[in-house]
Amino acid sequence: MLKLDYSQPTKLNDVALCQMLCFPNSFNTALGASFVAKSLGWFLSHEKRFLFHVISDEKVVGFCGGFAPQFYGDGSSSGMLQFAFKEAIIGVLKKPWLIFNKELRAYYPFIFRNIKKKLGIRKSIAAKPEPIDFVLVPTVGLVVIGVHPNFRGKGIFELLMNEFEQKAKSLNVSTCSLSVRSNNNRAIAAYKKMGWELKQDDGISFVMQKELYTN
Predict the structure, then answer these.
(1) What is the pLDDT of residues 27-78, one digit of tens each?
(2) Whole-angstrom Cα distance, residue 33 to residue 31?
(3) 175-181 and 2-6: which strand pairing?
(4) β 140-147/175-181 pair status
(5) Radius of gyration over alpha carbons of the chain, in Å?
(6) Cα distance between residue 64 and residue 162, in whole Å
(7) What is the pLDDT of residues 88-108, one digit of tens each?
(8) Which residues contact 42 (CB under 8 A, 6 or more apart)?
(9) Measured in Å, how far apart are the chain's first and last C-alpha atoms?
(10) Which of 62, 146, 163, 184 is deepest in the core (most CB within 10 A)?
(11) Distance (Å, rounded) from C-alpha 175 to C-alpha 123?
């Protein structure tokens, strides 16, 4: 019997194990269980973020996490890395070859800024930049989702996606979005089956959206 529940801190290690089994070759998995569990804790650190999982026989067999951005630049990838920055550094120290990983290279500017901040090094600013007018469009982003390899095809993905939509509605947000690699045909087909549509293509990934009706 499947049971869906919202994740608590005591369950993060189990959810992290499921994530690592779902994505054994990912950069996050390479950084280790401590990093994965800590980064998942980011979803529990704000009321507009959420993480839930599915249990079968006391085992986490699926999970999903999302958030509603609160300001311009409120991103999940950088936020999760910053939240688990210490664990990320420890992971790289244990596996120094990860320094050359292309996913990590994309975060070099962010990492250097964090190191300077922790060391108390500040760059002087000659002139304060002009503020940018930006209207934040209410949306709920699907950040992570996975189903244990041994439990795929049993309706868990649909259960997770339906709960994600219900959570978005509870936040009074009608637009849901996600990013998926453009070569991940299996995932794209699964999202389309759930009513998601392709919106943007940057050559590496697609942005997909779904419009909901809220009460």
Answers:
(1) 899 999 999 999 999 999 999 999 999 999 999 999 999 999 988 777 788 8
(2) 7
(3) unpaired
(4) parallel
(5) 18
(6) 11
(7) 889 889 988 877 767 666 655
(8) 49, 76, 79, 80, 83, 84
(9) 30
(10) 62
(11) 38
Residues 112-156: tens digit of each pLDDT: 565 556 556 555 444 554 444 445 678 999 999 999 999 999 999
Residue whose tokens read 């936020």: 79
d(CA 145, CA 181): 14
Structure tokens at 66: 């999302």
SS3 at position 200: strand
For 139-172, b/e burial (b = at least 16 CB within 10 A) is: bbbbbbbbbbeebeebebbebbbebbbebbbebe
Angle between helices 76-83 and 85-94 (to 10 degrees): 70
Answer positive or negative: Cα dihedral of 4, 10, 12, 14: negative
Q: At what angle do helices 85-94 and 33-40 cross, to 10 degrees?
A: 170
Token pair 């801190």 is found at 9
Could you tell me which of 195, 39, 210, 193 has the C-alpha nearest to residue 139?
210
Q: At what angle do helices 76-83 and 33-40 cross, to 10 degrees?
A: 120
